[in-house]
Amino acid sequence: MPAPAAPGRACRACSPSAILTDIAVATPDSLAGVPAVLAAAEAGEDLDGEAMLGIVWDAYRTKTANDSPAEVFRIESPSITFDWDFDDAGEMCRHLPRLARLYP
User: Which of these ranges, 13-17, 35-39, 57-61, has the smallest mean pLDDT?
Assistant: First the structure.
């Protein structure tokens, strides 16, 4: 059970983004119902996390007028192995049918 939140602060485990993240991790195809995903698909935009990587650098530069020191910003991602090919349309339809319909 998560520790109680400090007075005036929301509990991370109860926040809408934490709940959405937990649902998306458990059932990735559920992302097809998220308004931002629907809007991106309708606009023909691919969603990926790469654009998010510059946010920290930009915020630091805006606040300090300096570049962020390289040693303070690292991304470590776990190694993930999938047993199917994301580039195979048939596999996409089989594993993520709702997302595959959004991105034919």
Answer: 13-17
